[in-house]
Design goal:
The protein has 105 residues and is of the alpha+beta class. It is built from four helices and six strands; from the N terminus they run H-E-E-E-E-E-H-H-E-H. It is globular.
């Protein structure tokens, strides 16, 4: 899914295109798109894997991303093809600290 910060920055999401189950995705590859009243944005994968499930509720009602970005508004589930990629992801505490530096701009 997307973080609360990202959902807030996008504004009201009005369209979501998600990858299909069975799709193979690569680290940094485009896996979908989100459109809001403010902008359109591609969704990029932070890891490589095979899509197991997509959240049909998000495609049917994309506002769910704004209502619960880190909960019910999840985008897709995948099986990792390179589990070590997860080790390179930012931890929650580090992400929150990073966001704190943006507020100062």
């Amino acid at each position: 899914g997307v973080s609360k910060y990202a959902a807030d920055a996008l504004g009201d999401v009005v369209y979501a295109q998600l990858p299909e189950p069975g799709d193979d995705i690569e680290l940094g590859g485009e896996v979908g798109a989100l459109e809001s009243v403010k902008a359109a944005s591609e969704v990029y994968s932070p890891v490589s894997g095979k899509i197991l499930e997509k959240n049909d509720q998000v495609e049917d009602g994309p506002a769910l991303i704004n209502q619960s970005p880190e909960g019910e508004g999840w985008l897709y589930k995948l099986e990792l093809t390179n589990p070590d990629e997860v080790l390179k992801l930012m931890k929650t505490e580090d992400y929150e600290k990073y966001l704190g530096t943006l507020a100062d701009d």
